[in-house]
Amino acid sequence: MTLKRDTLAVGYAVTHEYLYVSSVMPDGLLKAKERLKIPGDLQTPDQIVDMIADHVTSSFDDSPSAIGVSVGGHVEHAKGLVRYAPDLAPHGRHWKNVDVSSQLQDRTGLPNYVDNDVNCMVSDLLTTEGLAGVNDLVVIYIAEEGHGLGSALVAGGEIVRGSSGGAGEFGHVTIQPAGARCRCGSRGCLEALLSVETLAREINWGGRHGVSTMAEAASLVEGGVVVAQTAFRRAGRNFGQGLAVLVNLLNPERILVGGPGPYFSEVDWPSANELFQAEFEAAVADYSFSDLQDGCKVDVVQLGPETAASGAARMALSREGV
Length: 322
Ligand SMILES: [Zn+2]
Fold this sequence. Notes:
Elements: E1 9-14, E2 18-24, E3 30-37, H1 45-58, E4 66-71, E5 74-76, E6 81-85, E7 95-99, H2 100-108, E8 112-116, H3 117-128, E9 137-142, E10 149-155, E11 158-159, H4 190-194, H5 196-204, H6 214-222, H7 226-250, E12 254-258, H8 270-287, E13 297-300, H9 305-319
Parallel strand pairs: 1-4, 4-8, 9-12, 12-13
Antiparallel strand pairs: 1-2, 2-3, 5-6, 6-7, 9-10, 10-11
The structure holds zinc ion (ZN).
């Protein structure tokens, strides 16, 4: 298909609650962002694809040149296939083997690009974070309440995808074999250790506290409660131990981390953020081989569904050669 060079591409990031939309012009300029609430009874894959198709066909004067779609989970981007997305469609109706690309093509007639959410975020970061020339890079995203920890691995300038698009499931690397049960069925996965459930269990032990959210846990840290400080330190150490595995495997030049909530919010939870960050940086140094860590810069950046939507649009543009 020949594309009009002056038309934008649209990126959609699908989450369990919202559809995030971002439009990007061929020159890379971000055109617009919006967020659409997904009605509680509209969460099957077919319904979400319909929602995207309806939006793209009704919201633009000129038809977009291409569509990008970001989904958290196991996405085989070469086929446009969502193989497994555990966070979408609650009540156990996970997305499994959904051919998003074909469905969107049928509905809109537009070329499309479907990828894992953190892979999409990389595309946006490459544009916005001054990463020109950085060929070996790791991006880690921790979702709301620690429910989801994804990564994107870039080696030699290429995203590492594995044989079926499942590479980078860093959240399910086992850090403590006898640790907390993970939603994937295993134990002691990094994602489980950083989740609000693990923090709350540690802080609430003994019955003196009753936190159930990250914000409540972080508020105790800000108030100087030792057991909460210890929980954030422990989370930071586990995170750093996991990051050191990536440093040893990939020898990255940069690691970019981010996500909503206290782990990365210097403004709202300065003490919790400081404890977590100091501990994970120390753990990276402790567990990295040789001097690999010295050449690796770790930065906290803005990451989230908005980033994924913009990145999906950028991916769609570059893939279509606009
Ligand atoms: Zn797991």
